Amino acid sequence: MIFLYILVGLIVLFIVLALVAPKKYEVNNNIEISCPTEEVFQYLKFLKNQDNWSPWKKKDPNMKQNIGVLRDTEAIGLHYNLKVNLLVKI
Fold first, then answer.
1. Residue at 48 is within a domain
2. Is residue 89 a part of any domain in this protein?
3. Does the pTM exceed 0.70?
4. pLDDT digits 0-9 by tens, 33-50
5. How far apart are CA 12 and CA 18, in angstroms?
6. Radius of gyration of the chain (CA)
7. Three-point CA angle 10, 15, 21, nearest 5°
């Protein structure tokens, strides 16, 4: 019987918390880059440049990456696969 009271109490607590909790949240992060937009875009659109700024690459330097292009263009048909160690804390 005590188990039933505890279960009902937990359910009521969950419902009360769901009613008073914020319904949505927002996370923002900004960085200021002192270069022209076109220059930044030309740098970032090549996935091979991610090694220079990627927080994942810094945390797990042994991660395996595979970057490929299906067509002779810069973005159409581009694919990117990576295998990381999930135990590395970011």
1. yes
2. no
3. no
4. 899 999 988 888 777 787
5. 10
6. 23
7. 120
